[in-house]
Structure formats: structure tokens, C-alpha cells
């Protein structure tokens, strides 16, 4: 029950008078208001700023500091006010929570300070209203990430008991962890650079000797380049094998992009080794050498920027693909147009539409090589249109990539928010449980407590009863009383779901094997409501399950019942009419030293040693005698 | 009457927006006039009802907190009432309650109507309470309660219990309940219950009399 409508509880209870003529049973007694006093203003002095509110406003949330007796610790006798040495600005939103029932998160507030205030005043942050909750969660996540980053920076401390393999992996992933790792990092980087450089220089024509024509350096200094290549590939191979050995999940490592690049970088060399110097395959061999350029991608292990770029391009792939598609459309259109426009002119370069593709691309990208130019007037017109539209085409990719980059960035945040939404559902579920817990399950729980209560009312003194009721505020007890009245009006009880399922099962069993009158369905509301139901699911604290042999009947129907054993005997047998009163009031007067046990009895019970057996037939009837002193409160 | 009607229209309409044929629902809500209602003076209300000044203050503060505009319409009423019965569906019964409170059938309850009804329910005589209850049951206000009306009311009450009850609710449980009710109340067996029959029967039943006094100290 939202405390915001706590003010309407008196109205709801007054409206309950409308049920009274319909009800056939007497109503339970209303909870007494022990602390009946006029509503008074409370002064809350928070670091000098005085807030005032009604006492009942604060009492709406009894499980917080201000709503419970915990605030008595802060009471100042001389000034008659409650003094809190906390931030007055944050206190504003906290007090508004009591007033309106909604907790808001002010944007200017620091998230950790706000959290501290909430914890101090005993308010769980999940209650923050939907209007402010996203902001709160975002800020909290940023804070957590910042803390995480700080922690990551400090993570370089070597954990004890790390296996050699784990150490190696850590060294590979974070080169800054140890000097060995750093050395290794720089050495591999150096060799990558060397390898790329040799690939490049290989093709440069070296100084021409008068005897030979200009040949590239690679052919001149074959041995030197071969040695260099071998050395690099050896280093790369060793590095790859070491990474493979150290990887925690070898399969995943082999699937990763970086390892594929490594493999592609060193493979051509080995293929070249095994291949003989055959003329036929030398062409293919040359092609393979192209793959050596992939070694430059190994730099991405060393450069964060390269990785981000790669990731951006990868995620922009669909947009770039669409861009390419629209470009292709435009190219085809213009190429067709140019071809047919230039068809007439003689010795034209536009021999076919695919040949015109080249012209269109060069013109649209504003390159304009000039190797193909239109000669006819129509061709020139369309050519100019083509180049003008090409400008537009150039303008498109840049914002697309930029917007994609920002979209990717926001998408990351949205992914986190989506994760948060799953948490949000969990949060809503938690809030629902917390709020309805006080009404639904709280009510069911309090009914179980009621039985204990009544017993203690006889035996114990007022303190014990108050001890049990300590958790429940007056508001809650009044609300429970209202629900209790509804139960009595309709002569049905609230139960939780599993009990309901159980009962459904039982009634179906009943319908099968009832050779004795089934009570639950035939008894009208008059009969059923006048018995005290004590169907317990959870065992009571000092319960035992005595299976008294007299009750072991071979019937499938079972009831759970409450045995209240009284030490003393009851003075008289209770009849049905007085049962109405007694079960609601304390029908177990003069019962001292009681002990509640649960037992399973089966129906129909022939008159067993307890004389209550007869009470199960027809209108329930509780008899007690001196001998047994067991009052069976049946669940029927 | 000290009622002041303040009309506030919110939402500016520019030319561009006029072009839009379909407006968002939020705009519609904003463009509704918000009527503020202020109740009569405290002294007058105190004279008309059986509440003391403090009690009226407490009641009005709660009322105004939930309904800042000063009036309760049926949806808000249903929402508020449903919060007290989370197990089942309280909307039907809340509808009947709303009609009982809204004696003028204006579609909204003002504070005065609210207070008058509460005064009858909490501080009125037995006869007044029973008359109010009779008006609650008599849905069409024809002076008679017939079986259909009673069945509607009882079904609405059973709806509030929800699904998970013990023993399980059967479809004819309300009907049985209504039959038992008519058995008790309809003295001349003519199929309807009049006000006098109702009051007479209730006064004969001790349980009912006792339960009517149950909520004396609610405020």
C-alpha cells in the first residue's frame, strides 16, 4: 500500500460499512490505536536549516530512520527538535519523499553523496521515481566505471599464486606489467617495422651497375633480404606459439582477429619454403608475397587507435554497404547515359557501358583524370550533371561515418541501458515485492502471527504481544483489519498461490473419493465462516508433528489442523453459537502453558479418543473434556 | 457557495501545430480545462457534519494531497480504492461506491460530498448508516433492491478477493450469498427489499448492529 494514500485509509474503512449487511459473520475487532494523539508538527533541524512537517507524514514509512523510533536518538531535549548533522540540500529531496511518496534525484547532486544520504536515512535507492531513475542509474554507472578504471590501473600488482602460463598471458596483454614484457613488446614492434620496411625496399630499384639493368634491391641482395625475412618470420612464429601456449582459451585465441592476422602474416613464408622454384607456381608464389603486407596490421596490437578505427569500420559496415550500393546505382545510371550519348561520336573511348564506369567513377569523385572525355554536346551536358552530383556523393560518406561513430558510442551506452532495463525489471519486481509485501504477503504473514498472538494474549503479558506487533505500524494493522473484514464478509480467505494450488488438488481428490459428506463444498457460507481456520503451511517455531495413531485412517483426504494443547482444562464445552464469538475472541480462556502443534488428521475420523471427532460431521462443533484437553481447530 | 472555478488551459497552439490533424494524447490532456474547487469554510462544514475542526483539517489535508485540484473523478477514485485491495479487482465495487458518494451524479466528488458521506458513515445514527448502505445497494435508485442489483454488488465484493482464496471461489458463490441475504431481508417475500424491510432486518441482527459500530474511531 503506497503511503501516499494512507490518508484515504479512514475513508476505505468507513466505506467498509457497505459490506456489513451482506456479511453473515461477525467482524473482527478493529486494532486499537494505542498512540492516539493529535497530529503535531515535528521540527527537523538539519545542520541549522529547520524543516517542519507533521508527525503522520513521517510515520508513513516506518522502516526508515525518520519514520521509526530511530529518530529518537537524534532528539534534542532543550530545543525540542530533532537535529541531524547532514547536508540540508539533500535532505530536501528526502523529506519530499515522505510528503509525496516519490523520491527524486537532483541533478546537481553528486551521486556518491546522495547515496550516502539515502543510506543514512534508511531509504533504498530503488524507490527513485521513474522520472529520475535513468539519470541516477547513468550517473551511478559512470561512477562505477570510473572506479573500475582506477582499479584497473592498480591491477598491475602481481597476484600471488599465478601460474607461469597466467603470468605470460598477462605479460602479453599488458606490456606495462614487467620489464620483460615491455622489452618483448618493443622487440616485436621493431621487427614488424623491419619486416614491412624490407618488403618495401625490396621493390626499389637499387643503384644500377653498368653491367646489369636496373633491378630491384630484392633481386640484387637476395640473400640479405632472405635472411632478414627469415629472422622476422622466426620471431613472429615464436611469438605466435608463445601466445598460443599462454592463452587461457586456446580455441578462442585462434578465432580472434589478431591471431588470424599473425597466421596470415607468416604463412606465405612457409609456403614459399616448401614450394620448389617451379616456374608454374612462381606466379602464385608472387601473389602470396602480397600477403606479407598484412604484417603491418600486426601493429594494431601496439596501437589502440588502429583498433578503434577497425572497430568503427566494422560497425559502420552496413551504412558503408548501403552507400556503396547507392553509389553503384548512380554509376550505372550515368554510365548508361554517357554510353548512349557518346555512341554517335567517332573514335570514342566509351566503347561499352562497363568502359563508361571508369569515366563515371573518376568524374563523380571529382578526380577527373582526363583519359576519357565526352565529345558530343549531350555527353558534355550529362557529364557535367554527373560531376555535380558527384560532389553530393562525396559529401555523403563523411557525415555517415562521423554519425556512425557517435551512434556507435551512444549504442554502447544504450546497450548498457538495455542491460539496466533488465535490471529495471528486476528492480520493479523488487519494489513490487517490497510494497505488496506489506499488503499481500504481509497480510498473510500477519494472519499466521495472529494465531501466535492470540495464544500469547492468554499466556503472556502485553509485552510479548507488543513484541510481535512491533514490526507493524498502526496503518498496516488498520489495513489488515480492513482486509480481514472483507474476508469475513465473503466468508473466504486470502491465501497465497501455492496454497491455492494445493487446495485445488485437494478438492479434486475429494471429488473422487468422497463417500463421506464433503464439507467444504456443501457448507454454505454460514457454516464455513464460523470455524476458525488454521491452515498453516510453514511450521511454527515450536511445532512437532505427532502422528497420533488414532488418526491414521486410510483415507486420502487429509487436513492440516491446529492442535492447541492446553495445560488446564476448559471450563465448559463451547457450542456453535458461542463459537462465533470465541474463535474470534480468545476462545481459549484460562488456557495456560499452551503449546501449538500441527498435526495431520484425516477425515472422516471416527470418533477418536478425543471427543472432537464428532465435531467433524455436520456443523463443526468443538468439545473439550478434561481428559484430552486437546482442542482441534480443524481446517474445514 | 464559496466555490471558485479557475480555468487553466495549457499548451500553446502555433500555426504549425494547427496543421497537424492528429494530436498527441498528452496535448489533449493539457488542453483540458483544469477546474479547481475550493470547499466552503471550515466553520460551515463543522456545523454541517459531525466532525470537529481538527478532524476536518486532517481529512482535508489527506484529500488535497491526493487530489490537488479539489475534486475526485471516478478514475482517480478507482485507483485510490484499488490500492487497498491489491489481491483482486476493486474497480467494480469502487464504481458503486463512487455513485454512492456522488449523490448529485455530477461525475466527480468534491470535498463537501466526501465529508458528508464520511460523517454519516462514521458519526451518524444507525438509521442513517443503514439508509446510506441501502442507497449503495440500490444501484438504479428506484427505492427497491432486487436480486440483480444485489448480485452485482456481491459479485463486486467477491471480485475484490481475487483469485487465490480458501476455499476456492465458485461461480455460484455470489448467488448463494445473495439468496441467503434475501432470505434474511425480504420479509414479505416479494422479491425486492425496501428500505423499511432492510432497516428492520438489520436492526434485528445483532452482528450487523455491532459491526456498524466498528469504525467509530477511525478518524
TrEMBL record, chain A:
GO terms for molecular function: A-type (transient outward) potassium channel activity. InterPro entries: BTB/POZ_dom, Ion_trans_dom, K_chnl_volt-dep_Kv, K_chnl_volt-dep_Kv4, K_chnl_volt-dep_Kv4.3, K_chnl_volt-dep_Kv4_C, Shal-type_N, SKP1/BTB/POZ_sf. Component of heteromultimeric potassium channels. Identified in potassium channel complexes containing KCND1, KCND2, KCND3, KCNIP1, KCNIP2, KCNIP3, KCNIP4, DPP6 and DPP10. SUPFAM superfamilies: POZ domain (SSF54695), Voltage-gated potassium channels (SSF81324). One of its GO terms (biological process) is action potential. It is found in: Membrane. Keywords: Ion channel, Ion transport, Membrane, Potassium, Potassium channel, Potassium transport, Signal, Transmembrane, Transmembrane helix, Transport, Voltage-gated channel. One of its GO terms (cellular component) is dendritic spine. Residues 1-16 form the signal peptide. Residues 38-107 form the BTB domain. This is A-type voltage-gated potassium channel KCND1. Belongs to the potassium channel family. D (Shal) (TC 1.A.1.2) subfamily. Kv4.1/KCND1 sub-subfamily. It comes from the Eukaryota. Pfam families: BTB_2 (PF02214), DUF3399 (PF11879), Ion_trans (PF00520), Shal-type (PF11601). The chain crosses the membrane at residues 180-201, 221-241, 253-275, 320-341, 353-369, 381-402. It is a multi-pass membrane protein. It comes from Oncorhynchus mykiss (Rainbow trout).
TrEMBL record, chain B:
GO terms for cellular component: voltage-gated potassium channel complex. Pfam families: EF-hand_7, EF-hand_8. This is EF-hand domain-containing protein. Gene3D superfamilies: EF-hand. It is found in: Cell membrane. GO terms for biological process: regulation of potassium ion transmembrane transport. Belongs to the recoverin family. Residues 1-23 are annotated as: Disordered. Residues 125-160, 173-208 form the EF-hand domain. Keywords: Calcium, Cell membrane, Ion channel, Ion transport, Membrane, Metal-binding, Potassium, Potassium channel, Potassium transport, Repeat, Transport, Voltage-gated channel. It comes from the Eukaryota. GO terms for molecular function: calcium ion binding; potassium channel activity; potassium channel regulator activity; transmembrane transporter binding. PANTHER family: CALCIUM BINDING PROTEINS, KV CHANNEL-INTERACTING PROTEIN 1. PROSITE patterns: EF_HAND_1, EF_HAND_2.
Amino acid at each position: 500500500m503506497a503511503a501516499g494514500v494512507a490518508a484515504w485509509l479512514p475513508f476505505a474503512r468507513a466505506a467498509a460499512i457497505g459490506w456489513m449487511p451482506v456479511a453473515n459473520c461477525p467482524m473482527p475487532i478493529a486494532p486499537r490505536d494505542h498512540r492516539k494523539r493529535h497530529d503535531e508538527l515535528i521540527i527537523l533541524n538539519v545542520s541549522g536549516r529547520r524543516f517542519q512537517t507533521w508527525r503522520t507524514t513521517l510515520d508513513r514509512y516506518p522502516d526508515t530512520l525518520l519514520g521509526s523510533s530511530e529518530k529518537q536518538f537524534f532528539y534534542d531535549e532543550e530545543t525540542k527538535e530533532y537535529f541531524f548533522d547532514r547536508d540540508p540540500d539533500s535532505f530536501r529531496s528526502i523529506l519530499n519523499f515522505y510528503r509525496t511518496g516519490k523520491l527524486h534525484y537532483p541533478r546537481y547532486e553528486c551521486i556518491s553523496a546522495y547515496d550516502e544520504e539515502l543510506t543514512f536515512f534508511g531509504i533504498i535507492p530503488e524507490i527513485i521515481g521513474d522520472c529520475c531513475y535513468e539519470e541516477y542509474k547513468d550517473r551511478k554507472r559512470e561512477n562505477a566505471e570510473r572506479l573500475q578504471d582506477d582499479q584497473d590501473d592498480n591491477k598491475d600488482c602481481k597476484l600471488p599464486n599465478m601460474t607461469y602460463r597466467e603470468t605470460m598471458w598477462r605479460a602479453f596483454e599488458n606490456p606495462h606489467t614487467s620489464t620483460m614484457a615491455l622489452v618483448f613488446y618493443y622487440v616485436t614492434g621493431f621487427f614488424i617495422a623491419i619486416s614491412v620496411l624490407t618488403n618495401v625496399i625490396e621493390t626499389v630499384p637499387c643503384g644500377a651497375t653498368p653491367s646489369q639493368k636496373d633491378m630491384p634491391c630484392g633481386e640484387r641482395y637476395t640473400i640479405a633480404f632472405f635472411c632478414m625475412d627469415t629472422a622476422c618470420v622466426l620471431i613472429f612464429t615464436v611469438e605466435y606459439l608463445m601466445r598460443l601456449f599462454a592463452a587461457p582459451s586456446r580455441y578462442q585465441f585462434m578465432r580472434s582477429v589478431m591471431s588470424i592476422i599473425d597466421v596470415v602474416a607468416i604463412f606465405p613464408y612457409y609456403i614459399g619454403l616448401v614450394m620448389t622454384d617451379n616456374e608454374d607456381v612462381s606466379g602464385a608464389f608472387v601473389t602470396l608475397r602480397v600477403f606479407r603486407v598484412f604484417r603491418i596490421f600486426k601493429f594494431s596490437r601496439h596501437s589502440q587507435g588502429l583498433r578503434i578505427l577497425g572497430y568503427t569500420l566494422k560497425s559502420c559496415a552496413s551504412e558503408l554497404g548501403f552507400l556503396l550500393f547507392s553509389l553503384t546505382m548512380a554509376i550505372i545510371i550515368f554510365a548508361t547515359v554517357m554510353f548512349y550519348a557518346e555512341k554517335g561520336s567517332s573514335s570514342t573511348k566509351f566503347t561499352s557501358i562497363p568502359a563508361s564506369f571508369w569515366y563515371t567513377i573518376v568524374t563523380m569523385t571529382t578526380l577527373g583524370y582526363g583519359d576519357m572525355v565526352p565529345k558530343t554536346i549531350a555527353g558534355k551536358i550529362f557529364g557535367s550533371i554527373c560531376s555535380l552530383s558527384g560532389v553530393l556523393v562525396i559529401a555523403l560518406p563523411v557525415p555517415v561515418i562521423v554519425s556512425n561513430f557517435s551512434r556507435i558510442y551512444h549504442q554502447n551506452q544504450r546497450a548498457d541501458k538495455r542491460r539496466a532495463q533488465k535490471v529495471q525489471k528486476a528492480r520493479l519486481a523488487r519494489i513490487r515485492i517490497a510494497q505488496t509485501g506489506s499488503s499481500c504477503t504481509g497480510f498473510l504473514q500477519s494472519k499466521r502471527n495472529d494465531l501466535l498472538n492470540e495464544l500469547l494474549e492468554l499466556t503472556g503479558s502485553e509485552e510479548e504481544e507488543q513484541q510481535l506487533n512491533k514490526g507493524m505500524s498502526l496503518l498496516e494493522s488498520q489495513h489488515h483489519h480492513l482486509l480481514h473484514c472483507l474476508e469475513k464478509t465473503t466468508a473466504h480467505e486470502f491465501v497465497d498461490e501455492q496454497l491455492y494450488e494445493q487446495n485445488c488438488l485437494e478438492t479434486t481428490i475429494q471429488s473422487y473419493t468422497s463417500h463421506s459428506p464433503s464439507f467444504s463444498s456443501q457448507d454454505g457460507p454460514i457454516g464455513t465462516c464460523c470455524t476458525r481456520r488454521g491452515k498453516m503451511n510453514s511450521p511454527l517455531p515450536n511445532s512437532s508433528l505427532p502422528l497420533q495413531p488414532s488418526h491414521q485412517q486410510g483415507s486420502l483426504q487429509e487436513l492440516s489442523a491446529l492442535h492447541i494443547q492446553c495445560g488446564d482444562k476448559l471450563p465448559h464445552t463451547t457450542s456453535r453459537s458461542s463459537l462465533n464469538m470465541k474463535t474470534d475472541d480468545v476462545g481459549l480462556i484460562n488456557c495456560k502453558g499452551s503449546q501449538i502443534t500441527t498435526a495431520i488428521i484425516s477425515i472422516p475420523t471416527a470418533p477418536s479418543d478425543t471427543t472432537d471427532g464428532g465435531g467433524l460431521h455436520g456443523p463443526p462443533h468443538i468439545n473439550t473434556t478434561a481428559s484430552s484437553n486437546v482442542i482441534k481447530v480443524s481446517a474445514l | 457557495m464559496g466555490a471558485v472555478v479557475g480555468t487553466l488551459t495549457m499548451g500553446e497552439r502555433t500555426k504549425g501545430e494547427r496543421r497537424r490533424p492528429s494530436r498527441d494524447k498528452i496535448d489533449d490532456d493539457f488542453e483540458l480545462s483544469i477546474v479547481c474547487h475550493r470547499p466552503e469554510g471550515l466553520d460551515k462544514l463543522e456545523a454541517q457534519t459531525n466532525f470537529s475542526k481538527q478532524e476536518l483539517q486532517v481529512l482535508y489535508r489527506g484529500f488535497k494531497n491526493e487530489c490537488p485540484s479539489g475534486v475526485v473523478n471516478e478514475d482517480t477514485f478507482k485507483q485510490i480504492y484499488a490500492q487497498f485491495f491489491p489481491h483482486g479487482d476493486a474497480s467494480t465495487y469502487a464504481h458503486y461506491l463512487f455513485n454512492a458518494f456522488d449523490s448529485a451524479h455530477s461525475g466527480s466528488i468534491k470535498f463537501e460530498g466526501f465529508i458528508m458521506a464520511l460523517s454519516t458513515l462514521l458519526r451518524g445514527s444507525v438509521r442513517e448508516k443503514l439508509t446510506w448502505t441501502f442507497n449503495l445497494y440500490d444501484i438504479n435508485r428506484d427505492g427497491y433492491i432486487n436480486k440483480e442489483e444485489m448480485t452485482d454488488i456481491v459479485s463486486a465484493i467477491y471480485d475484490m478477493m481475487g483469485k487465490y482464496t480458501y476455499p476456492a471461489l465458485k461461480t455460484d458463490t455470489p448467488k448463494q450469498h445473495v439468496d441467503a441475504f434475501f432470505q434474511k431481508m425480504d420479509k414479505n417475500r416479494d422479491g425486492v427489499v425496501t428500505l423499511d424491510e432492510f432497516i428492520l432486518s438489520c436492526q434485528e441482527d445483532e452482528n450487523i448492529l455491532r459491526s456498524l459500530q466498528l469504525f467509530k474511531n477511525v478518524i
